[in-house]
Design a protein that fits this description.
The complex is a heterodimer of chains A (525) and B (418). Chain A has 525 residues and is of the alpha+beta class. Chain A folds into three domains: 87 residues, Methane Monooxygenase Hydroxylase, Chain G, domain 1 (Up-down Bundle); 115 residues, no CATH class; 244 residues, MetI-like (MetI-like fold, Orthogonal Bundle). Helix content of chain A is 55%, strand content 12%. In chain A, strands 1, 2, 3, 4, 5, 8, 9, 10 and 11 form a nine-stranded antiparallel β-sheet that branches. The longest helix of chain A has 35 residues. The two termini of chain A are 22 Å apart. By secondary structure, chain B is of the alpha/beta class. Chain B has 18 helices and 15 strands. Chain B is globular and about 60 Å long. Classes of the chains: A alpha+beta (525), B alpha/beta (418). At the A-B interface, α2, α4, α5, α6 and α7 of A face α1, α2, α3, α5 and α6 of B.
Chain lengths: 525, 418
Amino acid sequence: MIDVSDLSAKPQLSHARDLSRPGFYVKLVLMGLVNAFGLYGIMTSAAQQQWWILGFLVASLIVADYVYFSKRAIPAKYLFPGVIFLIVFQVYVMGSTAFVAFTNYGDGHNDTKQVAITQISKTSDRRVENTATLPVSVIEKDGVLGFAVIRDGKAEIGTTADPLVAATDAKVSGQKVTEVPGWRVLNLAEVQQRQKEVLELRVSLSANPDDGWLRTDNATFAYVAKSALVYDQDADTFTDPEGKVYSADNSKGSFVASDGTELKPGWRVFTGLNNFTEVFKDSRLTMPFLKITAWTFAFAILSVVTTFIFGLALAVLFNDPRVKGRTFIRAIFLLPYAFPAFLSALVWRGMLVQDGGFINKVLLGNAHIGWLSEPTLAKIAILVVNLWLGFPYMFLVCTGALQAIPGELKEAGIMDGASAWKRFIHVTFPLLLVSVAPLLIASFAFNFNNFSLIYMLTGGGPNFQGTPVLIGETDLLISMVYSISFESGARQFGLASALSILIFVIVGFISWLGFRQTRKLEEVL
Amino acid sequence: MRWSALGLVGAGLSLALVACGGTPSGTSSASGSGAAASSAAATEGGGASGSLTIWVDETRIEGFKKLGETFQTQTGVSLDVVQKPSQDIKTDFISQAPSGQGPDLIVGAHDWIGDLVTNGVISPVELGDATVGLTDTAKKAFTSGGQLMGVPYAVENIALVRNNKLATETPATFDELIAQGKQLTPEHPVVIQQGTDGDAFHLYPVQSSFGAPVFKTGENGEYTNELGMGGEPGTKFAAYVKKLADEKVISSSVGGDPAKQAFLDSKTAYIVTGPWWTPEFEKAGMDITVLPVPSAGGQPSAPFVGVQGIYLSSKTNNALTANQFLTFAAGADAQKALYESGGRMPALKSVADGITDETLQEFAKAGENGHPMPAIPAMASVWKFWGATELAIMEGNAADPAAAWNEMITNIQAAIKG
């Protein structure tokens, strides 16, 4: 590092602060845009009552303005955008995953308790069987809404406060009440405008609440309804007409009766470490889980090793200047890398099909080999396909690394009388590993979670027999998580998050170990 | 490989955007009970009452667009028809509805009801007297907990389709059918589509003829949570699956498209399929007859009957207008219009009786004693286990079909209990 102040005695004014240069105005316009979008976001989140987002936006906007208009925060000018992206795309995502991991968020528990209570009350307010529907008009007086219905051929009106009474002076045309003295009959547009109120309007049939009430869903007919469940706010319970009591179980997140029946939907609650221990509780899952863990490690390690060896061999071969047309051949080798991996996996799946797949039918002459349905063969097929998909990457990085190794080292080796193999093993390879080893670790981490390959190629199958969830011989931990959390019945976001965190810990630990080891490699320099 | 990491970031970005973005409607549904909130909602409604949003898949977009135009001339409310892939409608709706982002209405099959009710994202529908006009199958399929949870508009089921050029007589049992098919087309005597995940839906007519319905039924014909496919009838069927695979009726390599192609190419005289493909057969100039699937196990075979319908979001701010649309959709004009553009048997009796299309009538006849597709929330896992077990038997991965079948019963029971 060179200290700038040594070079020029007078520190020059930055062009982003110098009013006479265009740089300042570019900064001004950019910061103006940032502030405009920031303010727009703040206003939107205020309208939506999203206080966390609002707070984040306000804080980051203030920091941004300070950083870019202050003289002091020069390093922050470079770091600020990165930090914001880090917070939005990494910290937030990880934070919310960690948060969800401790809840029962998923099917049937996807919102707050208040929403669940509203939904249960709403669906339990239902039509009484074998009652007639009544033609209805919505009427209004001093802002209060009411119904005007025709019951047994006579017009009757009522509001929330006043049960139905006969309206003898109302005018009826066809099947509808068209005029009520003292009241205004709302037209269709007005009804649509006040639809929330109309939908919430309940008019009692009589002074006796047991008779039920009138409600309407479409403002053309009203029907007699009664609530099948009554919510008691103080006791936090729902009671049905037979007296069965559903009380709120706040550890489970649903209303449960003493006989175990539950009301739907439930709500989100914290469930502590339940999600983390769930997989280990079921003894039928233990064996498959261990097998899948072993296969995940085998797959990740073997994938890295095979692609690296194959890619390196090709790279060494085509790094030799005696090979003609090297550029063209190198370009061809990169083709598998250029196709989207999930597409290639699908194509391979088509070729590996047992009956009529290209490999069995054409290459092996109508053989009947279950490449994807026999456990060992399926694993081999996956490794081969992944080799095909992954070697170009290794080929690419090895070629680059080989070209960076100085030619003098090779000459020195020749002078010392070392054979080509010895030169490779003792000179080229160690130097190569210095730059490639971190990429191998990254490749391991990637393959450890290579969901798309497994999902597209075998779908995890062939399945284990006798497990309570659908998992198979070729499932990786990550695709197992997907099967357990999303494919075996209800979607369980909480469980999925918890298991993802466990996998993250494993991958993180191994990567940390690996990076620590690679530091030793650098000692050869 | 490293680009995948970018893809993940992209997914994170879109998630974050979903979390950040949003319209004012999101919060009002959550705080709907207060007086202030309801007046605020009313003013919002003033702007929104002019249109309804509905999600449909690519096969029905035309029909619903036409329906929307008619509805608009009648009420002034326009219908904003959004096309989405069929398999995304339910899951996207469940995840978006709670945030107030979802549509007012969605169109889909009745077996979604379980999931939608568990998540509390749909509202019951009260059609008044119009309910009486619906066919019993349609009504039963859309009823959950004693309430109608949507407006059914079409009924469909699978049946045996015959190529009349290859065969004109069809025997009464499945064994005889295979024997006949073997003489006509040795490569595929009969085709029932399966594929790499198995396909319990298309095998169900065979299974039900063994007296092994998926669930036991209660007094009112409603499904209970108790499996009906266990025991001896079930294991007998499991053995029959193996036989079907040996006779090349089913195979994991023959999924939907290969099955259709085999029939189109006259490589088989019989295919078990639904009304969604018959237009293609007729377009290819084939002379076809639709028949009930012959019994394999002695009892009459019953296909699953699927009912298509329209669901109302429980979080919509336009519930009243949406209900007006649903009442309209339950009417004869709308049901007829949907039949004309979609070619599915209408759910309204008066319209269904007027259908003259011979193929559709034959399908309806084959589905007369069909079983409604179960709609319990655990159905997703039931399908998976079911298909996977049949696949394992088919491919010979399960050495003992009966044992694999019993294992499946235990697993499904565990999955239903949750």
